[in-house]
Structure formats: structure tokens, C-alpha cells
Amino acid sequence: MTLSLTTDRLTIERITPGDSAFVLELVNTDGWIQFIGDRNVRSIADAEQYIQKIQNNPAYTYLVFKLKETGSPVGVVTVIKRDYLEYPDIGFAMLPEYSGMGYSYEASKKVLGELERSGNHPRIQAITMKTNVRSIALLQKLGLQFEKEIYENNETLLLFTIDFLQAQ
Length: 168
What we know:
The protein is globular. The chain has helices spanning 20-26, 30-35, 44-56, 103-118, 133-141, and strands spanning 4-6, 10-14, 60-67, 73-80, 89-94, 123-129, 145-152, 155-163. It has a single domain (4-163), classed as Gcn5-related N-acetyltransferase (GNAT) (Aminopeptidase, 3-Layer(aba) Sandwich), CATH 3.40.630.30. Helices cover 30% and strands 32% of the residues. Helix 1 (20-26) packs across helix 3.
């Protein structure tokens, strides 16, 4: 995947250790903890280690999106090849103060477009909890469709997919 993407309002780049203060804030938001889980990141050093683990895992791509105007990081789009899914999983998270402004949609749409253009992924999947209504709405707005419920890690998740293969 391209290392740097841009939209009208955002720059989107791979996560780096320089993003540790942002990551520390993001992973400790109520929404992250409720819908993604507590990652026990409590300090800048913890955030740096968390980022290093992400960077060392070839199955993980974390992209930070920042406001072009200020350079402030506001969220992430992730593309993860999970062991229990056949295709890569797209996900997103954002600082709550930027919620409802369309940034997650803008960044995720750009990343999905790049994944489609690459031709390397015939299908992208996404998982979310049933109670994460904002995530479900965004997945549907991005064109992903509910496929089925799956049970993983002692919880029921909703599986959404988007198929990039053109009808022949």
C-alpha cells in the first residue's frame, strides 16, 4: 500500500514512533476501550512499544490520518490480516472530539480506493460489535455489506464485506 495518501482535508501515513503521544490518547478513549479493548498503554514508552509491535507485524498496517491544515493526528485506519478471516479487515478509530465531521469516512474511503486500485485484494472484510452502531453505519456508508455473524474471542461479531471483483 502507498505510504502516503491525501484527501481534501487529510494526510494519511503509516504509523511511526513519532505518533506515540497520539496513540497514547487514542487507545485510552472510552470508544477504543469499549469497542476494541484495553491495550494497557499507559505511558509514552508503552505507546512506543505498541507502535513497534504493529510495525514488526507484516499482517498489520496502521495508517494515521492528520488534518492537513494543522498536522494534528485525529484517527487511524487499519488493514489487518486476521487469522480467523479469509481476507484483510479494515478498521478505524478516531479521537472523540473529531467525531461526526466525516474524517473517518474520508480516510477510510481513500484507503479502500487504494486497496481496490492495487488489485491485490479481491475482497475486504470488517468486523464490529453489534452495539457499535456508529461503526456499522460507517461500514455501510463505505459500501460494505453485512455478511454474517461470527463468534470469535468469546464474543459475537458482525462481519461485513466489500467485493472488488468486477462482474465479468
